[in-house]
Write a structure and sequence with these properties.
The complex is a heterodimer of chains A (607) and B (170).
Chain A lengths: L3 E5 L1 H4 L8 H10 L1 E3 L4 H4 L4 E2 L4 E6 L2 E2 L8 E4 L1 H10 L19 E4 L6 E2 L2 H6 L17 H12 L5 E5 L7 H6 L4 E4 L5 H12 L14 H14 L5 E4 L6 H12 L7 E5 L8 H6 E2 L10 E2 L1 H4 L4 E5 L6 H13 L1 E2 L8 E2 L3 E6 L12 H7 L4 E3 L10 H14 L8 E2 L1 H8 L6 H15 L5 E2 L26 E3 L2 E3 L1 H13 L7 H4 L3 H22 L2 E3 L2 E5 L2 H9 L6 H12 L8 H13 L12
Parallel strand pairs in A: 1-4, 1-7, 2-4, 7-9, 9-10, 11-18, 11-19, 12-15, 15-18, 20-21
Antiparallel strand pairs in A: 5-6, 6-8, 13-14, 16-17, 22-23, 24-25
Chain B lengths: L1 H30 L3 E2 L2 H31 L15 H4 L2 H13 L1 H29 L3 H27 L7
The chains are: A alpha/beta (607), B mainly alpha (170).
């Protein structure tokens, strides 16, 4: 997607009656801009830009736009603010008209706007331009500075650069004070290069690879922070909830920093570093010819001259924290079994979904400071960038279809988008991706993605299950999601197809306890659904009475199972997460303990 | 003095900075193939037109600089007009000579005229080459060379016209 520029300038924004705005054509050719103004000048342009660097929209900021001899030209703040707002989606904006549209990447603002009467002489010199009034070209009363104030106040996040042929030194303090980010002299032969640099550092540019797809303000601001951080070698901390794309952001930062050539990018999950293994993994092993010990390059050395991405740094043990701190202080590593240390030039990009400043987490403050010497980037939650949902859905639909050769391509209906933006998305983009993949996989032979294809949990407005949009499959609530018979089959398919590549131990080592806990919680939610489905409802107890025996018969499919065996099974299922039980599960667990008391303890758990 | 400086400012800002330099940059983009347009049509409707307006004004600017800006002019208006006639016989000329010497006014005018002549030469050179046989690759290279020369001299002229701001306007 090309950058979308708005240029506020009396000379370039005017429409020349019965002729060509040569000045605008010159500027477009020089900067290789495609004139996207859509006015008579743009439509009758005598040139074609082969590889445009931006779409440029020109606006005169005065009325009339097309002035003839005898017309009076006046500055127009109100119309200008309206034009600026035309392609500006406010923070959190998600109304239908703002979804998926372009957004100004940057605004380029002239300083001097000539007003007054268009005379024969002024028109002869420059068609459509007025004579000018005293004060128009005085630095202390430039209309451009007045506009700058008004625009910056109304659109504080919109990046503004001055593009003028007036001397920079006349206004250098004023333009900074009023919120412009820089100044490009119109006659500077390096203008196009200066603008490219300005767009890179200050413009609201989307990710060209669309790995971090979207055009919302919070995302574009985060991408800009990453590009700015990429300009130096300081360590960067990426913060964001689960599923917001922290690793993708690390990739983006790395790519941005590698504009001048390829550099290594080494991703590591910090949780895999056990106290026994971390030294050899991080620092490597010195080969010993005499003893036959093979050498191994450590992760830090592998990332030399590039970036080491440490995911989930909150999971680092104190030993690993101390070791990483030492490397950051000394910028050297010593392999296990070695005596000599080697200098390394590694930028650490870390990611976390928790507030590491919280002393209760026990994360070293001195390490945290060193991990963010180059700044920190906060990734927005999906519910803060709802305007990105259309582009994300389109991307995920394409990806899901690409995984199923021969599948029909489907259009995305507006109702789907409306339904998706009404949800809270606690699992953020990862959750949205799952919902879309699920919808595509279950409905291969359709041309449209409609609300009935989606399996999403709650209506964010009232927290109730949207039963009318979940037709066609059995509905049971389990935690934050809804699943049923088809969901179980798919869940089993996924579980049975997951493999752990022995060559990628760094990604899965040390996670047995997590897997066991996740499995126990899954089974508990399964039991919870069965308990809810088999409650006995009576007039005296409309909310239903819990029955553990029918619930176990339901999930085992065994009508002959005894009540004692059912209680034993519940104890086995819920025992591993005993301390986390509440509601129906806690009640079922206590009933089971009463029926089949523990051998060493006859009292029940909390009641 | 006011009118002379207004003319200088208009030449510098409106014609050289805003017209001649951007038009030359555009022609370079056309010749190098980034922009598709009729080079002769664009050259004639931009550079030729702008220069036809600019060149005579530049000549006048440099030729009239000494007489228009000289501090000697202060002696023909209030209050210095009341100086004794005997003083007026020698002081204005002395002041004028000192001003010329101190600010190298003639040097500035001479350098400006030379830059304008350089621009004129580059424009006519590029125009002739364009009209001869622009389609040949070799000719395109010569046109590009002429345009780059024009860009350099125009830029130099722009800088030169701006230099006056803090100099001999007393």
């Amino acid at each position: 997607m090309l950058p979308h520029l708005l240029i506020l300038d009396d000379l370039f924004g005017r429409v020349v009656p019965g002729g060509h705005n040569v000045d605008r054509e010159n500027l477009c050719a020089n900067f290789l801009w495609q004139d996207a103004t859509g006015d008579a000048e743009a439509n009758t342009s005598r040139q074609k830009i082969l590889k445009p660097t931006a779409n440029a929209v020109f606006f005169r900021a005065q009325t009339p736009v097309c002035a003839r001899v005898g017309d009076m030209v006046e500055n127009d703040i109100k119309a200008t603010l309206k034009e600026v707002g035309r392609y500006w989606i406010p923070q959190g904006g998600s109304n239908a008209s703002s979804l998926g549209g372009p957004r100004w990447t940057m605004l380029l603002l002239d300083l001097c706007f000539y007003t007054g009467l268009v005379t024969e002489e002024s028109h002869r010199r420059t068609p459509g331009m007025p004579e000018g009034r005293p004060g128009d070209d005085r630095p202390d009363s430039y209309f451009g500075l007045t506009l700058l104030d008004a625009i910056h106040q109304a659109f504080p996040e919109l990046p503004i650069f001055i593009l003028s042929s007036k001397p920079r030194e006349e206004v250098s303090l004023e333009f900074s004070r009023r919120g412009a980010l820089g100044f490009i002299a119109r006659d500077d032969l390096r203008g196009p290069e200066l603008l490219e640099e300005a767009l890179w550092n200050h413009g609201l540019l989307p990710d060209p690879n669309e790995e971090l797809a979207g055009n919302s303000l919070p995302l574009l601001l985060a991408l800009r922070e990453a590009r700015r951080a990429a300009g130096h070698r300081g360590n960067v901390l990426i913060r964001g909830e689960r599923g917001t794309g922290k690793e993708l952001m690390a990739h983006y930062l790395h790519r941005a920093a590698s504009r001048d050539g390829e550099r290594p990018f080494v991703p590591v999950n910090s949780a895999v570093f056990t106290p026994d293994l971390f030294a050899s993994e991080l620092f490597g092993i010195q080969p010993r010819t005499a003893t036959g010990v093979d050498g191994k390059i450590g992760l830090i050395e592998a990332a030399n001259s590039g970036d080491l991405f440490l995911d989930e740094i909150a999971d680092m043990s104190p030993e690993v924290q101390a070791a990483v701190l030492r490397v950051l202080q000394e910028r050297k590593v010593t392999p296990v079994g070695g005596r000599l240390s080697a200098p390394v030039d590694v930028r650490f990009i870390s990611a976390t979904n928790v507030e590491l400043d919280d002393p209760a987490l026990g994360f070293r403050a001195d390490l945290l400071d060193r991990l963010r010497t180059g700044g920190s980037i906060s990734l927005p939650r999906l519910r803060e960038r709802l305007s990105d949902i259309p582009s994300l859905v389109a991307k995920f639909v394409c990806e899901a279809e690409a995984q199923r050769p021969g599948i029909r391509h489907r259009e995305i209906t507006g109702e789907v988008i409306n339904q998706l933006i009404a949800y809270e998305w606690p699992g953020n983009i990862r959750e949205l991706r799952s919902v879309i993949f699920d919808a595509v996989n279950r409905h291969a032979d359709v041309e449209f993605l409609v609300p009935g294809h989606l399996r999403i949990g709650y209506d964010r407005r009232d927290g109730k299950v949207e039963s009318q949009e979940l037709d066609g499959w059995q509905r049971n609530r389990v935690g934050d999601r809804v699943t049923g018979e088809i969901g179980i089959s798919e869940l089993l398919d996924i579980q049975n197809s997951v493999k752990f590549d022995s060559r990628e131990a760094a990604h899965w080592a040390g996670r047995l306890a997590d897997l066991q806990l996740a499995e126990a919680k899954l089974l508990a939610r399964y039991l919870q659904a069965a308990l809810a489905a088999t409650k006995r409802h009576t007039p005296g107890n409309p909310s239903g009475q819990l029955q553990i025996h029918p619930a176990i018969k339901l999930i085992t499919g065994d009508p002959s199972i005894t009540a004692s065996s059912a209680a034993d099974l519940i104890k086995r299922l819920l025992g591993p997460i005993e301390s986390e039980l509440d509601g129906d599960l806690l009640e079922a667990y206590n009933i089971s303990l009463r029926l089949r008391p523990r051998k060493s303890r006859l009292t029940t758990k909390r009641n | 003095m006011g009118e002379w400086n207004e003319l200088r400012a208009r030449l510098s800002h409106d014609l050289v900075k805003n017209r001649l330099i951007p038009a030359t940059s555009r022609m370079i983009k056309i010749v190098t193939g980034s922009v598709v347009a009729d080079p002769v049509e664009i050259f004639d409707s931009t550079i030729t037109v702008v220069w036809a307006e600019t060149n005579p004004s530049l000549k006048f600017l440099f030729e009239s600089c000494e007489t228009e800006l000289s501090p000697r002019n202060y002696f023909s208006v209030e209050p210095l007009i009341h100086c004794p006639p005997s003083t007026l016989e020698w002081l204005p000329d002395l002041i004028h000579e000192l001003w010329l010497e101190r600010h190298d006014v003639r040097g500035w005018c001479k350098a400006g005229s030379e830059l304008a002549a350089g621009v004129e030469l580059a424009i006519s050179g590029a125009g002739n080459l364009l009209r001869e046989s622009y389609n040949a690759d070799e000719q395109k290279a010569l046109v590009l060379d002429a345009l780059l020369r024009l860009q350099g001299t125009s830029s130099g002229l722009s800088t030169h016209l701006s230099l006056i701001d803090n100099r001999f306007l007393i």
